Amino acid sequence: QLQLVESGGGLVQPGGSLRLSCAASGFTLDAYTIGWFRQAPGKEREGVACISLNDGSTIYGDSVKGRFTISRDNAKNTVYLQMNSLKPEDTAIYSCAVQQIQGPLGLRLCVSMSTVMTTGASWGQGTQVTVSS
Question: Average pLDDT in the 60-72 region?
């Protein structure tokens, strides 16, 4: 059974860093795209970053470009989200999701939260990130 488990969230001061992990099981990390998404209170869920698991290609949402980095460790079946220069507006519940889509189109569908990405995707339970002084 395909399963994702997030970890690494917490409370951090503005300008600080956190690294989130998304541990996957039940499938082999190759012909899939994994994305990180976030939802703040009162706001819609948005795509943060996505990675193609077979070649490591990445794409980012405009609000996190240059600050966040998504990466993968296929040996550990884990995808990471390194978050630097955190801002209060980054406060949200962060979740990862996986879908059997590939290539540049798959990445764009992922970060834009197309129904191709979200319908039938497997989601983790989420981890809270709070950026506050």
Answer: 97
